[in-house]
TrEMBL record:
Coiled coil: none annotated. It comes from the Eukaryota. It comes from Pyramimonas obovata. This is ADF-H domain-containing protein. GO terms for cellular component: actin cytoskeleton. SUPFAM superfamilies: Actin depolymerizing proteins (SSF55753). Belongs to the actin-binding proteins ADF family. Keywords: Actin-binding.
């Protein structure tokens, strides 16, 4: 188990499932949570055909999560491309303690996931709209 700077450990399967998404395209998205034992654990995954909406539905209204989404797009030259997006979901309605725990553990956890293209920190549903990815990704996305 890897550790994070806040004292939160990371289950080994968190990284292996990410690698399956990245290299084998086995999943479209992944949602992680910090459990009661202060470990980052896998909560759920979306099959390769899963929609972005199904990913957003897994982000709880009153609790924090980390998420990964594999965003496919066609660039201006017509080539199929993909960008892996890291989400730090910390809704305004979440309690302060989990917000602090997720915030202090995020950087160490993200460093374990090699291959992330960019990050979106979101506090409400409007910040995880597909337009947020397109904005971060640029005009070619």
């Amino acid at each position: 188990m890897a550790g994070a700077s806040s004292g939160v450990a990371v289950e080994d399967d968190c990284v292996s499932v990410f690698m399956d998404l990245k290299k084998k395209r086995k999943y479209r998205w992944i949602v992680y949570k910090i459990d009661g034992e202060r470990k980052v654990v896998l909560e759920c995954t979306g099959e390769p055909s899963a929609s972005y909406e199904s990913f957003c539905e897994k982000l709880p209204e009153h609790d924090c999560r980390y998420g990964i989404y594999d965003h496919d797009y066609t660039d201006v030259e017509g080539c199929q491309k993909s960008k892996i997006v890291f989400f730090a979901w910390s809704p305004d309605t979440a309690k302060v303690k989990p917000k602090m725990l997720y915030a202090s553990s995020k950087d160490a956890f993200r460093r374990l996931l090699d291959g992330i293209h960019f990050e979106i920190q979101a506090t409400d549903a409007s910040e995880v709209d597909i337009a947020a990815i397109q904005e971060k990704c640029g005009p070619k996305c």
